[in-house]
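pinned: reference chain
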Amino acid sequence: MTRRAVATVTSAGQAPVAPFVGLSTLWVQITGTWCNLECRHCINASGPKSPWLKPLDAATIERAIREAEAMGVKEIYFTGGEPFLHGEILPLLEVALAAAPTTVLTNGTLIGPAVADALAGLAARAPYSLELRVSLDDADRAKNDRIRGEGAWAKAVEAVRLLRERGLLPIVTATEITRDEHPAGYMYERFRDFLHAQGVERPRVKIMPVFGLGRQRADATAPLTEEDLEGFDRSGLQCADARVVAAGGVYACPILAGLEGARLSTGSLAESFKATPLYHPACVTCRQTGMTCRNS
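pinned: its structure tokens
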């Protein structure tokens, strides 16, 4: 699976666009598509071997954070791949937490006691809040590990426990890969009950839709047209006020980071402040569901 193995894509130059309304959110694709897991539904086909989107160096990340801070950014997110594979993730989080509330999207498998202690220390010192989003795809060990790999469930659940014990209440994030098999709200209720059973008094759960890209291709999905967007407020789309720093430049969307059609700049953040082509079939999901990669 490579970055070009995606559903049918229209030309970015012919696609409808979303306006840029101002920088609210900065995404940092810190490890590119380098991950210690190889989940069968991964939206950017991350994995442990030869990542097609390379990790970012610390200087590039710091420069982007400083630029975003000067522009009044409201939130910063670190994603990948798996962010905790990056050797400088902790000092980079400290830089981010001095600028804005910061979230890390992680599979949780690399969060042991020492990392949990370090994260709790960062959170205690920081002027802004630190959030951790830990990915699980089923409350059942066997069902989850069929998707994420043997042992992933136990490590992620342990990460939730370690973080909770240190006062960091993680957000458990799941993808609706079995949406057609269950009634609406099933996954949320299942995870809520599961987390209660784990001793989490205030469960926090985010459910993501399946996107037609990465390892979950949807070749029959047609891109958006102007007719599809008639009467729709495009300024409410995530790409209208978010930008992603990743290898190769600045992109419109954390889901499409690294793809040529989503790249808006090869230089500064400011150079990317332009209308975003809604060229990819994945944009259809955002239009239909109102989905955002943000915490809420």
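why pinned: The CA atoms of residues 39 and 148 lie 4 Å apart. The chain has one domain: 12-289.
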